[in-house]
Each structure stands twice: as C-alpha cells, then as structure tokens.
Amino acid sequence: MSGNSSSYARAGVDTEAGDLAVELMKSAVSRTHGPNVFGGVGGFAGMFDVSFLKAFDRPILATSTDGVGTKVAIAQAIDKHDTIGQDLVGMVVDDIIVVGATPLFMTDYIACGKVYPQRIADIVRGIAEACEATGTALVGGETAEHPGLLGPDDYDVAGAAVGAVEADALLGPHRVADGDVVIAIASSGLHSNGFSLVRHILRERGIGFTDTSAELGGLVGEVLLEPTRLYTTPLVGLLGEHPGAVHSLSHVTGGGIAANLARVLPAGTWAELERSTWSPPEVFRALSTMAGATLESSEGTWNLGIGMIAVVDPDAADAVIASLASSGLPAWVAGRVSSGALAPSDDWVQGAKGVDGGAVRLTGEYRP
Q1: Is 246 helix (H, G, I), strand (E, B) or coil?
Q2: What's the CA gap between 159 and 157, in Å, rounded?
Q3: What residue ranges carry the coiled-coil annotation (predicted)?
Q4: For residue 230, what is the DSSP state?
Q5: Would residue 9 count as lying in a domain?
Q6: How many CA atoms lie less than 13 Å away from 143 in the CB half-sphere?
Q7: Which residue, 30, 89, 101, 226, has fewest beta-carbon neighbours within 10 Å?
C-alpha cells in the first residue's frame, strides 16, 4: 500500500474495500449495458451513444433525481440490502415515464460511514437488476466513504436518470380534457414514502424492526422493505400499443394521491376519486390502527395502494386497463376529470410542489 493510501486508511477510508465492492458488482452492472454504452465500468464518466435521436423530429431529454428517504434505516436495522436498489430505481425512473419518456441511462451515489464490500455490492446489484428490468443502462456511480460524518453502518443512496421522448408525444396537463377517465394503478405497498411516519408509529408502540408483528403479518423490517413496484416497462409498452390514449401520468410519491394527481391536471379542472373503488392493502390498515388513526388521515403521506395514476381518453379506458392487467398491473377506474365550478369544500387539494394545477379530492369510504 502506498504512503498516501496508508494515510487515507488511518483517516478511516479504505480504498481497497471500495475496489473490491466494484469487482463484486461488475457483472450485475454490465448486464444493463447494451450497444449504446461506451467505456464499461469504472470510468470517470458514463458514456451513452445517442445518435439514434437523429431520427426524432424534436427529441426532448427528461431527467429525474431522487433517493429512498429513511427507508434505508430499516434495511440497515435488519441487515438486508438487496431490495433498496429497486426502490431507488423506482423512485427515479418511474418519474421519467410520467412525461412519456423512455429511460436511457442512470447513475447512482452511495454515501456510507464504512465500505463493506458485500453490502455495497448488494445495494448496487439491486439497482442493476431493476435497471435491467426497466431497460435502463446503469452507466456509472460513486461510493463515498465518510468516516466521522456517518456511522460505520450508516449509508444513504441517491440516483439520477435520463430519458428521451418525441416532443409531439409529451404527456402532461396540456393533453387532459373534460371527461377524461382517471385510472388508478396498484402499488406494491408503502414504496419509498412516508417512512418517517412509519418509524414514528413503531417507536411510539415500542416495536422494533427485528420484531415479529401479528398485525403486520411477519417480521416487521421485512414487511416494510417490500420493494417499490416498477411501472416503466409496462407503461412504455402501453404508450406504444395505444398511442394517444394516455393524456397524463402521475407517480404517487411524497404528498400522497391527491397532491400528485393535481400536478398533472390543468388549472380549472378537478377530479373526485372514489375511495370505494379500492381496498388499501393491509400494511396501511395495520399502521393506521397502531397509530389510533384513520386511513383518511394519512392520505397526504402514503400512497394507500395506488402507486401510479393514468388520465386517459374515456374511449380507451377499457383497453388501457386490459393492457396493464396483461403486464401484471392491477388497475381500475377511480374517477373522472371535470371542468367548471368546484363543489364548496375544504378538502380539495389544488396544485402541489409549485405547480398551479387542477384540484383533487377523495370522497366516500374505502372498501373493506
């Protein structure tokens, strides 16, 4: 080991462990590489050949970046790190399909207190497998060791992805019209949002992540680590199979159902979603019961069983639902878009995250 490396090691940074982690993850990452990827694994920059965009009339690049929030604390608590990567890809890549873009490539960033090669490889393997499932090349990444800033077992993950869409095919509020049908697409559970509330509820009840809970139906940490559902590949197929049928998409992440749908409706329109059209999965019911609260009180935090929403041409609704079902995505009609005066109420959510969009509220009672 060189003098510089030895000095770095005395400061708590193990570059050899980092190199071993890269070796352990290389095969998984390489499986995401098609003929458009240049340079392989380990370069200073990931490179991707986009000469195919010359065939576009007006190519638009779409990009997204995100993390998975405090869900990583649960992975760390039960020492299970092979699913958190899928959560990251879902949070990032499924934002790109919202505008109709097909994902091209992604990069990741892992900050940790100490590099444990197998742990880092497990995280990246999960990222790579989810990238492979969504047709996204994992072209680069970084693992940074931060001793003294993070504890030895602490880490956080983040990522960014880029996709492309023809300008004429962009989805968004500009396509939405009065009478459009709102189709809900099922989530796989909590996905990667609202875990600060989850952790608070469990802490108040004195329940640990390594405990077994009859209410949650198993080992608490494993139940909560159910990976985020990946929507990109089925939706890319849907958009190609039924061009023009989908007017806008909404990825239900932080802020809940109403706020995220409101972002993709034009100002002056509104939608009422009927709670009776679905039954929130048991994990949401159990956590609400533990908190002594109603499901309705968490609608601005959790997805409550809806991970993605499609606003579609009413004549195409049945075909869209059938296409999603054939891809393994349960979907159903949850409401319609209307324009004009709103019914007086304090429970409308209008716009979100700086977007002056439409208005949305949930009505009725959830199906048992």
Answers
A1: strand
A2: 7
A3: none
A4: P
A5: no
A6: 28
A7: 30
Residue 182, helix vs strand vs coil: strand
Last residue of a domain, one of 169, 200, 232: 169
- pLDDT number for residue 2: 42
How far apart are the C-alpha atoms of 2 and 158, rounded to whole Å?
31
82: Cα within 13 Å, side-chain hemisphere: 6
Domain boundary, last residue among 135, 169, 203: 169
Asked if the structure places residue 160 within a domain, the reply is yes
**Do 274 and 292 sit in the same domain of this protein?**
yes
Is 4 a domain residue? no
Q: Which residues, listed in sequence order, are joined to residue 47 by a DSSP beta bridge? A: 38
CB-CB contact of 92 with 159 (8 Å): yes
341-363 pLDDT, tens digit per residue, is 887 778 899 867 777 789 999 99
Query: 50 and 36 in contact (C-beta within 8 Å)?
Result: yes
End-to-end CA, the chain: 63
Residue type, 182: V
Identify whether the C-beta of residue 249 lies closer than 8 Å to the C-beta of residue 235.
yes
Instruction: Please give the tally of structural domains in the chain.
Output: 2
Place of tokens 């694994």: 41
Contacts of 322-327 with CB under 8 Å at 24 or more apart are 323/234, 323/237, 323/238, 323/241, 323/242, 324/183, 324/185, 324/234, 324/238, 327/233, 327/234, 327/237, 327/238
CA atoms within 13 A on the CB side of 205: 20
CB burial class (10 A; 0-12, 13-18, 19+) of residue 34?
Answer: exposed
Helices 84-96 and 232-241 pack at an angle, to 10 degrees, of: 30
In the beta sheet, which residues pair with residue 157?
110
For 241-262, the pLDDT digits (tens) are 999 999 999 999 989 999 999 9
Which residue, among 200, 224, 196, 189, has the nearest Cα to 210 in the 3D structure?
Answer: 224
Domain extent for 224: 173-363
Q: How many residues would you count in the chain?
A: 368
The whole-model pTM stands at 0.91
Number of H-type helices and E-type strands within the chain: 11, 15
